[in-house]
Amino acid sequence: MRAQTIVNQFETFAPQSLAVPGDPIGWQLGDPNQEVNTILTTLDVRPEVVEEAIARGAEMIFAHHPAMFRPAKNLVETNPQNAMYAELLRHHIAVYAAHTNLDRAQGGMNDWLASALGLEHVVPFIETGDEAQMGRIGQLAKSMSLADFVAQVKTAFNVAGLRVIANDLDRSISRVAILGGDGGKFYLDAKAAGADVYVTGDVYYHTGHDMLAADLPVIDPGHHIEQIMKQKVADQLNHWSDQNHWHIKAVVSQLSTDPYRFM
């Protein structure tokens, strides 16, 4: 099966038009017309992930985060990133990335995250004036204290630690907003939508002070919770393969690409 045929099907679900302008999504490396039998799904394209793809015989890597987020200034292989690109090309592994288009897609990244938290009656909470709506907000099945919800977030996303920005951990919450990735700047949108708590990653120090002043509790479980896409995308690709008789197999990267450790 041609790699581009697979991508054409995927982009009916998460079209490139949904992406934030300037986001370097789409084909990153390799030949979109090459034949593919095995696809490795991953959050990030890192050297260890490339080694895994080679070991598992994958001809294509499907990632969430673009491999070439910042353009290379040269292709000298003493640079680890360039060496990774060269290894991909040497092994004829094509790389495709679906980033903010997957974040914004209906039934995509933020719906998966909301589902993992058990949210009901989920809708977008950031209106952009077009079909590309960001973030999700929904209701918990029953109200709970913020402290209990923090524990639920840790379990749902299998994280060893997280950051909580709150004036009162005993506060009762029921309405939850979530935005995967770096979503700190949207905390006022979450508050305006009626969120009792906002879950997002990469919150900056001074933004944290502003969140406290706004009296909106915020939970930062990290950027890596977006790894939920690995299994979800693999399942969808395998479903399409069965449906369309593609005879391809999508496999999930078994590696963690989270750069942080909690000690």
What does the model show?
The structure is a single chain. The protein is of the alpha/beta class and 263 residues long. The protein has nine helices and eleven strands. Helix 7 links the parallel strand 8 (172-182) and strand 9 (197-201). It is globular.
Q: Briefly, what is this?
A:
This protein is of the alpha/beta class.
Indicate the topology.
Elements: H1 3-13, E1 26-29, E2 38-42, H2 47-55, E3 60-63, H3 80-90, E4 94-97, H4 100-104, H5 109-116, E5 120-123, E6 136-145, H6 146-157, E7 163-165, E8 172-182, H7 187-192, E9 197-201, H8 205-214, E10 218-220, H9 228-244, E11 249-252
Number of helices: 9
Strand residues, percent: 15-25%
Shape: globular
From the coordinates shown, what is the CATH architecture of the largest domain?
3-Layer(aba) Sandwich
Rounded to an integer in angstroms, the radius of gyration calculated over CA atoms is 19 Å
Broad structural category: alpha/beta
Count of the separate structural domains: 2
Kindly report the average pLDDT value.
Answer: 96
Distance between the termini: 45 Å
Kindly provide the name of the CATH class of the largest domain.
Answer: Alpha Beta
Q: Spans with pLDDT under 50 lasting ≥5 residues?
A: none
Count every beta strand, where a strand is a DSSP E run of 2 or more residues.
Answer: 11
Helix content: 25-40%
